[in-house]
Automatic annotation (TrEMBL):
The keyword Secreted does not apply. Residues 19-113, 137-230 form the Ig-like domain. It comes from Scleropages formosus (Asian bonytongue). This is Ig-like domain-containing protein. Its main location: membrane. The lineage of its organism: Eukaryota, Metazoa, Chordata, Craniata, Vertebrata.
Length: 236
């Protein structure tokens, strides 16, 4: 619920009559650890000198990053954010940028901009920081319970522990990609700053009984982990 707060606000307010909308580019930005990330925010017209930036990690609440005013010598920062890592600049009267220096894995998040005079947020830019030293996802693949099989409502559960909250989950059955019956929840940040996520695949009991091979793959940048399971693996 918290994760979708800003996106819900954007979706609900996007059609508010008379509001001047802001747009953000790109929608997804992949940057290597240690590099500089530049996120763009554009306004339809020069209606103010101000822009606000917010950060939201998967499963977390939105955090105020900074307020930028072209008339001020430096931005005003939210708690935990500083000029050594974050800054903002104006490319023109309608084009603003958030600059993140020497990005770290912890900078992976969705960043939103907002004009001063409107309640409408931009659609957000998802920043994904890739790092060759990041650990590969850790997976646990659970079989359907006997109760589910008896009720003809079986599901496999893939539990993943990942370093960044934007991992991609995919399922296959006997090597064939599965899209129907897949439900993947938003990642939730843990106390150790890692993220936990779960994905469910609804399966036909007949497919499970046929001892077909089900696979859950979790991709995190160049790092991938895959877990497989079939009925005979469970000793039944």
């Amino acid at each position: 619920l918290l994760w979708s707060l800003l996106s819900l606000l954007s979706n609900l307010l996007i059609g508010v009559r008379g509001q001047r909308l802001v747009t953000q580019e790109p929608s997804v930005l992949n940057v290597n650890k240690g590099e500089t990330a530049i996120l763009d925010c554009k306004k339809p017209q020069d209606d103010s000198y101000n822009i606000y930036w917010y950060k939201q990690v998967p499963g977390g609440v939105p955090q105020f990053v900074l307020y930028f005013n072209r008339a001020l010598s430096s931005p005003a920062y939210g708690t935990g954010f500083s000029s050594s890592h974050f800054t903002s600049r104006a490319q023109s009267n309608t084009h603003y940028q958030l600059v993140i220096n020497s990005v770290e894995a912890e900078d992976s998040a969705v960043y939103y901009c907002k004009n001063c005079i409107t309640v409408v947020f931009g659609q957000g830019t998802k920043l994904i920081v890739t790092d060759g030293s990041l650990a590969a996802p850790s997976l646990t693949l659970l079989p359907p319970s006997s109760e589910q099989l008896q009720a003809d409502k079986a599901a496999l559960v893939c539990l993943a522990q990942v370093s960044v909250g934007f991992a991609e989950v995919s399922w296959t059955y006997n090597g064939r990609p599965m899209a129907d019956g897949v439900s993947t929840g938003a990642a939730k940040q843990q106390e150790d700053k890692s993220f936990a996520l779960s994905s469910f695949l609804s399966v036909k009991p007949s497919d499970w009984d046929s001892d077909g091979v089900f696979s859950c793959k979790v991709s995190l940048g160049s790092k991938q982990s895959e877990a497989t399971i079939k009925k005979s693996d469970c000793g039944v």
